[in-house]
Amino acid sequence: MTIRRANHEDLEFIVAMIADDPLGIKRENFQLPLPNEYQLAFEKILADYNQELMVMEDENGEVIGTLQLSFIQYLTYRGGIRAQIEAVRIRKDKRGLGIGKMLFEWAINRAKERQAHVLQLTTDKQRPDAIRFYQDLGFNATHEGMKLHFE
After folding, report:
1. Where in 11-145 does DSSP place strands (E)?
2. CATH number at residue 107
3. Looking at the domain assignment, is residue 19 inside a domain?
4. 48 falls within a domain
5. Is the pLDDT of residue 7 over 80?
6. By the 8 A CB rule, do 17 and 89 touch?
7. Is residue 3 helix, strand or coil?
8. Distance between CA atoms of 121 and 50, rounded to whole angstroms?
9. 64, part of any domain
C-alpha cells in the first residue's frame, strides 16, 4: 500500500468515493466528465501548502482510499497549529480491511511531523460506525460541533 499526494488523474476516483455513501450521494454531483467546480477546488487545494489531499493505492496502483489533511495556524496554544482531517473515504469493496486505520495512522504521524498540537475531525451524527472507528483510534468527543450551512 502506498500513500501519496493526489494528482489530476486521481480526481475522478476521489470524487466517486466521496459521493459513494448515503450522505455523500445527497450533496455531491458525481458524473463524467466531472463538473468544473471539482477541478477548480482541486487546483486550489494543490496550490495551498497547508492542504494535503492524499490517496492510498493498493499493490496494483489502484486508488482505494483518500483523505484531506488541513493545517490551520492560529494564535491560541501559543501560536499553535491545528490539523483537521476531512473527507476520509475507502472504496466500498475495500472497506473492513484495515485501510482506514492505515490512513489515519499516516495522518496522525503527518500531523506530528508538522508540529500540530491536535488532530481534529468532525463526523455526522448519522455515522455511528464511523464514530466508533474514531473512538477506537483514540479520538474523544470533547467539544460540541456546530455548523451554519449556507444555501
Report:
1. 51-57, 63-73, 81-90, 118-121
2. 3.40.630.30
3. yes
4. yes
5. yes
6. yes
7. strand
8. 16
9. yes
Give the number of domains in the chain: 1
Residue for grid cell 466508533 = 132
Domain of residue 48: give its range.
2-136
> What's the rounded Cα separation, in Å, for the pair 55 and 146?
28
pLDDT tens per residue across span 76-131: 889 899 999 999 999 999 998 999 999 999 999 999 999 999 999 988 888 888 89
Cβ count near 4 (within 10 Å): 11
Apex CA 134: angle with CA 22 and CA 39, to 5°? 50
**Residue with grid cell 499553535, as numbered in its chain:** 80
Does residue 34 lie in a domain region? yes
Q: Are 89 and 104 in contact (CB under 8 A)?
A: no
- Please tell me the pTM assigned to this model: 0.89
